[in-house]
TrEMBL record:
Biological classification of the source: Bacteria, Pseudomonadati, Campylobacterota, Epsilonproteobacteria, Campylobacterales
Location of the protein in the cell: Cell inner membrane; Membrane
Keywords assigned by UniProt, alphabetized: Cell membrane, Cell projection, Cilium, Flagellum, Membrane, Protein transport, Transmembrane, Transmembrane helix, Transport
Name of the protein described by the UniProt record: Flagellar motor rotation protein MotA
Record gene name: motA
A GO biological-process term: chemotaxis
Length: 258
């Protein structure tokens, strides 16, 4: 579970609620089911209209990526690549055929299989670069669905507020009911802004951010396969791959036994 997502939403809601209570309000009054229905599902439907079908499916399919920790372990992936480079240098690249056949990562499997089959390095690079571009476009489009839904939320909140005010003004002969209607109308505005900046929009940006790790991992794999194909020294190849790590991550060599 990605605590930055959960804590971010929880803290945002908590601070708003605490502030409301300090001013003498009651956060429970904001829980207006009609406003929720008018704003959130409508914004998501509008975003669906504007988004290609495959990306709408991708947005919901990849929702788990938003809530979970990054699915990429760069250290483990680099170690795996270097282990393969050591085998290739010692026993020849054909010795990697059995490893390629049982790999779960389809991208790595395809590239390594091409290298084992003797495909030229430039052809491997061209093929895998196309796959990387398609993957990047897929995640970008999927993330944009949530971002677009978030951008639409405030406008849907405005629509909900206007509808509520129209109904409230029909009760001019009953000031108490009219006041309640006006209060209910503005809850739609709250849902619109909160949905945009606490939930839907941040979900989209989080998915886009995590997809960068997924794409970076594929670049690491591509560089590793090309290094293996060229017969690079495993130590030299590892130094190159470690440069892909974030400045916050330790760049320790597996050859360093100290």
């Amino acid at each position: 579970m990605d605590l930055t997502v959960i804590l971010g939403m929880v803290i945002a809601i908590t601070t708003i609620s605490v502030g409301d209570i300090m001013e003498g309000g009651n956060p429970l009054h904001i829980l207006h089911i009609t406003s929720f229905i008018i704003v959130i599902p409508t914004a998501m439907a509008a975003a669906m209209t504007a988004t290609p079908q495959e990306y709408v499916k991708g947005a919901f399919k990849e929702f788990k990526v938003i809530m979970k920790k990054s699915p990429v372990d760069f250290h483990a992936r680099i170690k795996q690549i270097i282990d393969f480079a050591i085998i290739a240098r010692r026993d020849g690249i054909l010795a990697l055929e059995s490893h390629a056949n049982i790999m779960e990562d389809e991208f790595f499997k395809k590239g390594l299989s091409m290298a084992v089959d003797g495909v030229e390095a430039h052809e491997i690079e061209e093929t895998l670069e196309i796959l990387i571009e398609q993957t990047e476009e897929y995640y970008h489009g999927s993330a944009h669905y949530w971002i677009h839904a978030g951008e639409t939320c405030p406008v849907m909140g405005l629509i909900g507020a206007v509808l509520g005010l129209i109904l409230a003004l029909q009760k001019l002969d009953n000031p108490a009911e009219m006041a309640m209607g006006i209060g209910g109308a503005f809850t739609a505005t709250v849902f619109g802004i909160a949905g945009s900046y606490i939930f839907l929009g941040p979900w989209g940006h989080k998915l886009k951010g995590k997809s960068k790790d997924i794409i970076k991992e594929k670049h690491v794999i591509l560089a590793g396969i090309l290094g293996i194909s060229h017969g690079d020294n495993p130590r030299t190849l590892e130094m190159k791959l470690l440069n892909y790590l974030s400045p916050l991550e330790e760049k320790k060599s597996q050859f360093d036994k100290s």
